[in-house]
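User: You have something folded?
Assistant:
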Amino acid sequence: MQEKLYGKEITVADREMVEERVAEASVKPHWVLIAAYSITDVDTTAAEMLTDLDNDLNADNINLVFAGLKDPVRDRIIRYGLLETIKQRHFFPTVEAAVQSFKDHHFDSESLSK
């Protein structure tokens, strides 16, 4: 599952959108990938929301994953302590890199060739 957030700060509405998309999915996702190229800021409220969202997703064996976060935004996420819940390996430079990592870890070469 991939969501794009365009030119904005992360808000509680984004959490609600993610939760709705997960609930509506016909197959439970392993990852929720946020294409975060245009996220411009994460404040303390957003950091708390992301922590809660990640904890809720983790309870369902779903990982919250980011692609394309700008360095200052990623640094702020780290400073707010989100690496305690969101794993360092779940930050990718591009959506393509995230998708490739997902494929590498969730599909064996035999299942991909079918």
Residues 2-7, 109-114 have pLDDT under 50 and may be disordered. Residues 44-59 form the longest helix (16 residues).
